[in-house]
# Entry
Amino acid sequence: MIRLCVLDEIPLGMARPFVVGGTKIAIYRTREEQVFAVADRCPHKGGPLSDGMLAGDQIVCPLHAFRFDRNSGSCDQPHVCPVTAYPVSVQNGIVSVDM
Amino acid sequence: MIVPLNTHRPRLVVIGNGMAGARLVEDVLAADPLKFEIVVFGEEPYGNYNRILLSNVLNGSQDAKDIFLNPLSWYAEHGVTLHAGQRVTEVDTVQRIVRAGEREVTYDAVVFATGSRPFVPPVPGTTHHGVFVFRTIDDCENIASYAEGKKKAVVIGGGLLGLEAAKGLLAHNLEVTVVERSPWLMAMQLDEAGGKVLQETIEALGIRVRVDTGTAEIVGPGSVTGVKYEDGTLDETDLVVISAGIRPNVELARAAGVAVERAIVVDDQLRTNVEHVYAVGECVQHNGMIYGLVAPLWDQTKALAQQLTGVGPTACYTGSKIATKLKVMGVELASMGVIRDLQPTDEVVVFSEPRRRVYWKAIIREGRVNAACLLGDLGPADDVMTLFQRGGAVPERRLELFFTAGSQRKETSYADLADSHQVCDCNGVSKKTICDAIRAEKCTLPAIGKATRAGTGCGSCKKVIKGLIEAVAGDVAADPSENYYVPAVPLDKPALLAEVRKRSLKSVSAVLRELGDGSADEKSKMGLSSLLHSVWNEEFVDERDARYINDRLHGNIQKDGTFSVIPRIPGGVTTADALIRFGEVAKKYNVPMVKITGSQRIDLLGVQKEDLPGVWRDLGMPSGHAYTKAYRMCKTCVGTEFCRFGTNDSTGLGIAIENRFQGFEFPAKVKMAVSGCPRNCAEATVKDVGIIAGEGGEWEIVIGGGAGASVRKADVLCRVSSKEEAIQMTGRFLIYYRENAKWLERTYDFVPRIGLSKIIDIIVNDSLGLGEWLDQEVQKTVNAFVDPWTEANVPAYPGQFDAGRSIPLNVLSS
# Structure
């Protein structure tokens, strides 16, 4: 696991971007205090998913509102690749990701 | 074979399964579904279809199966016996038997709905291959398949149907010539000048037109090779469509001893001279008139159905005033009455605008519209038609028939239409009938079509029907989700606002928790965030995750994830110092593009997220809100300041407006403009709110305009005599819009939905006594204004402007 930050550095209900070993990822923190990570690049046109919004279990890309399931990474639109989802852990207020 | 008389129910036999026959059956069933055993004979082997749409089938824009009104299954479902493809050969009115070859059916009542057939002029050669008439689905299909690979076609007859046929042929890549015997096209509906205008329009589409030309012969042999005219000239052609008028089918009736003149003679009860024998439709002559359009047929079938079933024993048909709107090859045409019917005492009012190919003519007899035709632009058509139908008095200044005096005519909103206004001309359906259906929860186009038939003819009224659904369903909430402010909260806007205020809900999550349906899509969150901000101002609990990225970073996200920065430049008036600052900032932050926007501002495009605070600080200008659903800007012309023509200080008013309304959030963006004279250089008539200086210090305020994906000219709200009043009225309208519009509903949808007259009543006449409250809301919002770019100094949440901390893999692994 790779340590990223303390939990409070991720804004509630939103995401924060990180570049881990050259790979851009978005770490989301829901209002229900669940934390998860996806690649910070929309497979559609490369939009920054860390600037997206949460709609239930979906991340909504800010550029064209394509939606991705936060667990499986799959897109709601046909013929769009899923986004990569990464395992995350939060222990003692420290957020880590497995890549 | 003799089918025995049904002992329980009288038998109604309808001869003809066209638009009149089938409609009669429907009307009878609607009046009393159990009254008759119904038997229908139809010559074509199909159910009933909409003949009006045949040209669409010919030009390929509609499939034949899409124009069916009643498929074969419909007859079975309704217990109607249809003998499709069976031609009635004899009617024995003494023994009351209808014979179709071997088949015999006795009747208690028989209705002739035999319609009409194309008239084929008695010239040699009409039986050659490649010569067609244009009346049925089979004709369409035969023409279309014959046209394959052919080069030229001649259409004989320049009436409505002939032109429709020509349009259909054009779609098959043929060189088309239309030949008309009269000196001009559509001689039934147009006068000579109108016919010439139509001809020019049609020629511009690439169709050759020959008027004043009689056909002498269709040249063969075998297959058609040309058409020879009475003047001796000849056109080579591969295909001929004859559309030289129609003749009523009366032979069967005549042979049965029914009185026939030009068509089957009927009285006001649609009775013929023979007992138990009736007639409706194009085969009928009533009071000397034969009708070839659909609307009169509907009146006839309705009256007859009422009478036959006994539901309305006194129902009468007293004749129809022929008024119709058509679209011929993209040319809009309204025709009413008989335009050729001109007496020496009649007044004629004509307006013509040759460049736009607009031609309007009305014949006024004894102060009433007796006939009219309008071509090219149907602006006044509805009003003229209403006057014609009602026999209303023509305005004393005759030109007001076409031009409402003084101001520009306002687009009537759907809510403002009279109940009796005929919406669907093909089926004769009034606004009231449609609205009743909507109130009975028929809230989709197909449901309305099924319930009332509206929109099932040529389809040109579908837009109005949609508007009515919108306007009426808003009252009854038949499909309630249509009226929700946002999807996740099942409440319309007034109810939502009431709950929010009553329960003191100040955050998006509180609203979703207490009023939501459990979902939380991003659009709902954005809409609620905007609404709560306007309701609570400083007390609003601002959860940033309910905002779209543009509203978190106060810039418009671009395709590469960078942002655009547009500061306020009130009135578009800037200074040398400000421009130098723009230049310095652009250099310092390597801004890839500096662009003058369409709204008199300067846009720094391609700014990196992490540079936003620095850019804002260094510019030292307030946010222009060019990224959000809010007041955007107010475009101005130079006005009296410098302009030779300006009559008032438009720049000054524009700047005052900008300073007052900056930061106001709305359900959708709001753009404004102020023009200093009626030349309207600031294009105020296509803004959400526009203000135009008139003479004598007056300002005219217009609302609901727009020029984006769709263009709508703004409606006049009022005229005021000072800048202060202009600002006040603008504020009242904007708050009313903010309180009542659905999320993302622009004013150009909002104004027609609510209805202009209602808005004028509320805003200008203060009919609800809201004025003072609206003013207070404006003031509260002004007081609560905070420039969002001050977040440059105090970020609103962790990582707001963070581009992504870099974490090397090898160091922090654990």
User: Anything to note?
Assistant: Confidence is low (pLDDT under 50) at residues 405-411 of chain B. Chain B touches chain A through 34 residues (CB under 8 Å). Residues 266 and 550 of chain B are 71 Å apart (CA to CA). The radius of gyration of chain B is 33 Å.
